[in-house]
Amino acid sequence: MSLILASSSPFRKAILERLGVPFITASPDIDESRNTSESPYELVYRLSEEKAKEVAKTHSGIIIASDQVATLDTGNKTNDEIFNKPGTHENAFLQLKKSSGKTVTFLTGIALLNTETSAIQVHVEPFKVNFKQLTDNQISSYLEKEDVLNCAGSFKSEGLGIALFSSMEGRDPNSLIGLPTIKLIEMLAKENVHIL
Q1: Choosing a second label site near 110 at 20 to 30 A (CA), which of 30, 45, 79, 125?
Q2: Model confidence over 97-150: pLDDT tens digits?
Q3: 145 within a domain of the structure (yes/no)
Q4: Based on the number of CB atoms within 10 Å of its own CB, is 167 exposed (0-12), middle (13-18) or buried (19 or more)?
Q5: What is the dihedral of CA 134, 136, 142, 143, to 10 degrees?
Q6: Is 24 part of any domain?
Q7: What's the structural domain count of the chain?
Q8: H/E element, 42
């Protein structure tokens, strides 16, 4: 069966290429707005599933879909602030300033849909990043050196962003980049697709 990555993200594509399995990409066109009273966990779970089902309308095989949010730990779980892709330098600066000395939790949803059997697996992988205390100069210096306007949380952990952290906590560092590979391999195995 063919593998379809339901994403236009070059980061997710690069991660999947590392597994050495042939696949194609298809971009799902869905409304990614957050529903009222929807938690960040519920949001990425739902969007991952919706992306897979959307691509299944035009493609057959095993569809891999993912969605991610970054949340700033405010100490009040129902009020954690979601960090979207910043889009502008000013927003990126503000996100990093808010993250300084705090913990940002990345929630990455992953869905695997077999279009032949309609079997779907959905999982949300958490990954925590603990930020150093950052000065305005350090934030500005970082933003001058790395383009992060298309990255939730305003950093690239696989690049210079690692210099912003005091520590990281999680099972799979690839989930930070947008595709929890350890979980993906487990899901594929359940569909008799084995990487090794």
Answers
A1: 79
A2: 999 999 999 999 999 999 999 999 999 999 999 999 999 999 999 999 999 998
A3: yes
A4: exposed
A5: 130
A6: yes
A7: 1
A8: helix 40-55
DSSP characters over 94-139:
HHHHHHTTSEEEEEEEEEEEETTT--EEEEEEEEEEEEPP--HHHH
CB 177 within 8 A of CB 158: yes
Catalytic residue among 29, 67, 80, 172: 67
The rounded distance, in Å, linking the Cα atoms of 32 and 51 is 9
The model's confidence at residue 158, banded by pLDDT at 50, 70 and 90, is confident
**For residue 165, which amino acid is it?**
F
Active site residue 67: yes
- Residue reference for tokens 């979980």: 183
Q: Classify the C-alpha dihedral 117-52-157-105 as positive or negative.
A: negative
Domain for residue 195, yes or no?
no
Question: Within a domain: residue 196?
Answer: no
Q: CATH number for the domain including 66?
A: 3.90.950.10
pTM of the complete model:
0.89
Q: What amino acid occupies position 70? A: A
